[in-house]
Amino acid sequence: MTTSALQKAGEFTVGNKTSTRKAIGLPDKGLRTKLSLSNKLPEEYDALVVPVFKGESGLELAATGLFDESVDTAIWELLAAVGATGKAEELTRVPAIEGMEADFVLAVGLGNPDALDEEKLRRAAGVAARSLKGVGTVATTLGSFGLGPAVEGFALGAYDYPGLRSKPSSSEPLGRAVFVDSRENAKKEMRRAKIIAGSVCVARDLVNAPSSHLYPATYASIIEELATEQGIAVEILDEKRLAKEGFGGILAVGMGSSRPPRLVRLTWEPKDCYHHVALVGKGITFDTGGISLKPPASMDNMISDMGGSAAVVATVLAAARLDLNIKVTATIPLAENMPGGNSYRPGDVITHYGGTTSEILNTDAEGRLVLADAMARACEDEPDYLIDTATLTGAQLVALGERTSGVMGNGPLRDQIAAAGVAMGENAWAMPLPEEIAEAVKSPVADIRNVTGNRNGGMLAAACYLRHFVTEGIEWAHVDIAGPAYNTSSAYGYTPKRATGVPVRTFIEVLSEIEHM
């Protein structure tokens, strides 16, 4: 598919509908490394990746179980000779030992063996994978300390988004990673890890796609293509349906753009499932701030303002691929926030889906407006749980930094999500909804207003606003991922620069926990 074709609005099919138009697909994909499982070394491989520890007496090499003891000893001696210590995420590359088919050995430090956990293994695997770009095939025994985390870390670390260059990038990805593991349940662990990592990479691909290619109409079609492949039901509301059904928040935000908004609904519903989780994700495909225009510096990063929607899409896809016995619905509002002639203005009052009115004080606080409509619609399905996520506030970064999501809500679900985030290496922290901030969200001319006029507690104010759209009796949590969804610094661990895929793994973990409740 050509770039020029992607740039023409409305020239694509959606799902399996009969049409002469071409399907979209993602502009490019970042996970190009093949991952496989074997109970022995492949016949041909370029490198062997082995774990080492920082023991009390110095460097410790975990026995590979692949060679004679003399070969393992020779590897250890060579690593020790060049100063390897085994500290966490340390990489040491040495030539292969005689009798091995590889060109070199890469030792990956796991630190103190008594302190090793899944996240440390995940990060070490990611660091190793990032260092192996351009290598054809590697074999590794990292999975012997946790196959799932090792595969996730390796896959996520190997992720490399090539972009839309006219010529191929000179940086080739790692070609293939073979995990050597002969345990009986290894295939099951491998499959789950590949699905989880692949889902994160889908979210990364969506966020990394430029807004010239990913805007409401094309994004809705891409979502439908991805969902239809997994047997997930899809409904798309265009601007006419949105107007007819009263989605005033989505329409207000999207009316300043020449690319009209959409609302996408996804449903994964196995037979005889007991629990129902509703997901909502903010899908602002580009955010200029509208009339309340943002400063131009770093505005290009606003292609990431649909990170919440990408995470929700990827989570529903994962639920289907993992065949989770739980009903999952997703309500995904898509809009561009642009300062056009039809833009909404500070001082406007809009009516949301369901009838709640909002006074607009700042058009750059648009995310909560589209989420409000989507949450009100999601609550009509009477789910047991409602989880929304968004790159919502700069206040999240001020409060918690670039790598920790803020989680707010009205029940135990808040703490469950925060705990899952920490366990999965997607740090999250439970935050309160103070009474005085909830009071400040009230408006003198409407039911509520979209900002309080006070910088303090901005993340909490946004959550207090959203709480107005949660039906009583539904357990709800809001996850602000403004910083964690998009890494503007250097790559670290298994996290690349740009899109991170947070909080997909957290959400998959929470769905899995609810499935067994």
UniProtKB/TrEMBL annotation:
GO terms for cellular component: cytoplasm. Its main location: cytoplasm. The keyword Cytoplasm applies. It is found in: Cytoplasm. Its EC number is 3.4.11.1, 3.4.11.10. Binds 2 manganese ions per subunit. Mn(2+) 2 binds at residues 282, 287, 305, 366. Keywords: Aminopeptidase, Cytoplasm, Hydrolase, Manganese, Metal-binding, Protease. It comes from the Bacteria. The keyword Transferase does not apply. Residues 362-369 form the Cytosol aminopeptidase domain. Its cofactor is Mn(2+). It catalyses: Release of an N-terminal amino acid, Xaa-|-Yaa-, in which Xaa is preferably Leu, but may be other amino acids including Pro although not Arg or Lys, and Yaa may be Pro. Amino acid amides and methyl esters are also readily hydrolyzed, but rates on arylamides are exceedingly low; Release of an N-terminal amino acid, preferentially leucine, but not glutamic or aspartic acids. Mn(2+) 1 binds at residues 287, 364, 366. One of its GO terms (biological process) is proteolysis. The active site is at residues 294, 368. One of its GO terms (molecular function) is manganese ion binding. Pfam families: Peptidase_M17 (PF00883), Peptidase_M17_N (PF02789). Presumably involved in the processing and regular turnover of intracellular proteins. Catalyzes the removal of unsubstituted N-terminal amino acids from various peptides. Belongs to the peptidase M17 family. NCBIfam families: PRK00913.1-2 (NF002073). This is Probable cytosol aminopeptidase. It comes from Corynebacterium vitaeruminis DSM 20294. The gene is pepA.
